[in-house]
Amino acid sequence: MVASNLVFASLVLAVSALKLPSYTPACSRNDPKLNECVVRHGQQAIPQFINGDPKYRVPKLDPLTINQLSVRQGTRQVGISLQVRDCQIYGLRNAKFISARTDLKKRHIEWDFKIPSLQIQGFYNISGKVLILPISGFGKANITINDLSITYKYDWMLV
Q: According to the model, what pLDDT value does residue 67 have?
């Protein structure tokens, strides 16, 4: 989730405050195939954007460095708390922009991405329990997620 937020935030930076870079052509808001244009141009921008863009303050995205990644899920009977620090995330360069849904009147977008394989490396600390069985541990983490689907939803305001 953090990775998708950063990818999206990076793409939004390119279209929000500054003129679009040459590798990201604009789509016309009146284009009847606006969503297809967004996907096509977004996919074309990924190879350029992945290495970062200092003008837009976009960091290098593969590997993406994150100081801490936290996941807390569940209830008292079945719950987990996972922290991974000093993370390196690999695989974003292989992201495929699958589809877009744009509602300009409601100022809402949804973007779908597929990533064949995402690797997260760092140092983990985990605690939780499953019914009465406690779970705890720490050490080096190497997490691989295959066939990852991400849907990013974003609402914006005009100021």
A: 96
